[in-house]
Design brief:
Blueprint: E1 4-11, E2 13-14, H1 19-24, E3 28-30, E4 36-39, E5 61-62, E6 70-88, E7 93-101, E8 114-116, E9 128-133, E10 139-150, E11 157-166, E12 175-185, E13 188-198, E14 201-209, E15 216-222, E16 231-237, E17 243-253, E18 258-260, E19 264-268, E20 273-277, E21 284-290, E22 296-303, E23 308-315, E24 320-326, E25 334-342, E26 347-354
Antiparallel strand pairs: 1-12, 2-18, 3-11, 4-6, 5-11, 6-9, 6-10, 6-11, 7-8, 7-10, 12-13, 13-16, 14-15, 14-17, 17-18, 17-19, 20-21, 21-24, 22-23, 22-25, 25-26
Length: 355
């Protein structure tokens, strides 16, 4: 069973050049204004999604009166993002998530998401302005404000949502990589990554380490140089170590300069494995977890918007624990992500389909 441990968005930095020096020269602008906005609902026609990104401080978006509501913006192409600024009306979000995506699912870049909790603003017509700093290297085309809990009995009301992305040449990296993942498949590691922009790319050297310090080249893949067209890459490490394997990509430009991705890790072997059925799920999901008796595991099920529809903690009684997640009214048909983590640093993430 696959163990997906880490997914990242990365901008490659040339050897000898720091990421900080690149970012300091980058000009950011509101790349969401006037783009395509959609929402889970609106309380009336005058409060449609488009009014949150029209640049007019006197128009606003307002959702239906429910916690699980969202506002999404398609910026037309992927940008290197810096921050999100939300100007809230008095019906603001007490708890909400900022989600990102490059394919519109909002699950492909979930690790880059920002979670805001126990938020407190005023009750004025302009309750407050949030400037939310994003994780370094966040590259995305789609962005979503996903409500978790409202501050009032009304919906979520936003005067303006601004998304600041790189528009200067210094911020437009020749190779932008996102979704770099390592997945354990029995005794092998499957590495996958996506390029959003790709120019003058000779290719990628795949490097592996067992201590996250000393890396050895284990493979090479030629660059496709597809411009701004999304390209998918994969590499299978058939000689992976038992235990922790650390991976990074060394990207080489055609002029010989090189840059590195951040390091990701996957754990092969051990006692943990996960089996889920039926496929697809109708009334309930059965989860079989093989681990260590006495360990505590956390189980969560997220919908495609990143909204948790199930959370639980359980002590493993025997070597294999069988758990049943009964379907509820909030579990509508579609794709979901099951996440299981334990204190033993074992993490499982898998896709579940509800019919």
């Amino acid at each position: 069973m696959a163990f997906l441990l880490l997914a990242i968005a990365a901008q490659f930095t040339a050897k000898g050049q720091t990421a900080a020096s690149s970012v300091s020269q980058t000009i950011y602008a509101n790349v969401a204004m006037g783009k395509m906005a959609t929402a889970s609902s609106s309380d009336n026609a005058d409060h449609a999604a488009m009014y949150a990104i029209d640049g007019n401080p006197n128009t606003r978006f307002s959702s239906g009166y429910d916690d699980n509501q969202w506002l999404s913006v398609d910026m037309g192409k992927a940008y290197l993002l810096n921050n999100v600024t939300i100007t809230w009306e008095k019906s603001y979000g007490k708890d909400f998530n900022i989600l990102f995506s490059n394919n519109g699912t909002f699950t492909d870049l979930y690790i880059d998401s920002i979670h805001i909790r126990n938020h407190l603003l005023s009750g004025n017509s302009v309750a407050g302005i949030d400037t939310i700093q994003l994780k370094a290297g966040t590259v995305a085309r789609y962005i979503r404000m996903q409500g978790v809990h409202r501050a009032t009995s009304n919906g979520y009301s936003i005067w303006e949502m601004q998304v600041f992305g790189a528009t200067s040449a210094a911020g437009l990296f020749p190779v932008s990589v996102t979704g770099f993942t390592a997945t354990a498949e029995n005794t092998t590691s499957l590495l996958e990554w996506i390029t959003i922009t790709e120019f003058s790319n000779a290719g990628f050297t795949i490097e592996r380490s067992n201590d996250a310090i000393n890396f050895t080249a284990i493979g090479w893949i030629n660059g496709r140089n597809a411009g701004s067209v999304t390209s998918h890459y994969s590499f299978t490490d058939k000689q992976a170590f038992t235990g922790k394997n650390y991976y990074r990509l060394r990207q080489t430009w055609v002029d010989g300069k090189t840059g590195y991705s951040p390091v990701i890790v996957v754990n092969l072997g051990g006692n943990a494995s996960v089996n889920t059925y039926p496929v697809p799920v109708r009334d309930h999901l059965v989860v079989e977890y093989k681990g260590t008796a006495g360990e505590t595991i956390s189980i969560a099920l997220f919908n495609a918007s990143g909204f948790p529809v199930y959370n639980n903690r359980q002590d493993v009684q025997t070597g294999q624990q069988t758990m049943i997640i009964n379907r509820t009214a909030t579990m509508t048909p579609g794709e979901y992500f099951l996440s299981i983590s334990s204190a033993n640093n074992k993490t499982y993430t898998g896709k579940i389909v509800l019919q």
